[in-house]
């Protein structure tokens, strides 16, 4: 299979606490658990949580290794942007906040004008953009 626009994408990140992250991404945003692997406490063994929408061509992989945890180090440009194509529902924002998210101002004025930024429990930005995606 060639690498092209139909290739599936996995976005991998470390997480401090997979249970907390799952509440945000699944109960808050509405993603589904795609895969889960339990890990032990020995070096090299890790827990893994993959979340996404079943019909999407991408998913988010969150990893935690208890014996040697990697601390998330997000920057202001580490964003996952979801194009909503309309107003961001207040009930969605409330649900994200109830499940560990924090609404923040983006340092990039574009995202403040065209969306809402919510910081996930690991400090990464989720932008809910009011615009539709267009690659033109």
TrEMBL record:
Start and end residues of each VOC domain? 5-131
Name of the protein described by the UniProt record = VOC family protein
Q: InterPro entries under this entry? A: Glyas_Bleomycin-R_OHBP_Dase, VOC_core, YycE-like_C, YycE-like_N
Pfam families (UniProt xref): YycE-like_C, YycE-like_N
């Amino acid at each position: 299979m060639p690498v092209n626009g139909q290739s599936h994408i996995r976005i991998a990140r470390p997480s401090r606490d997979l249970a907390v992250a799952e509440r945000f991404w699944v109960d808050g945003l509405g993603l589904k658990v795609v895969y889960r692997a339990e890990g032990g406490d020995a070096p090299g063994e890790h827990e893994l949580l993959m979340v996404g929408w079943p019909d999407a061509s991408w998913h988010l992989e969150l990893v935690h290794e208890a014996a040697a945890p990697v601390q998330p180090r997000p920057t202001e440009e580490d964003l996952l942007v979801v194009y909503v194509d309309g107003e961001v529902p207040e009930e969605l924002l409330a649900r994200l906040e109830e499940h560990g998210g924090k609404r923040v101002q983006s340092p990039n004025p574009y995202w403040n004008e065209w969306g809402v930024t919510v910081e996930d429990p690991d400090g990464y930005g989720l932008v809910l953009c009011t615009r539709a995606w267009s690659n033109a």
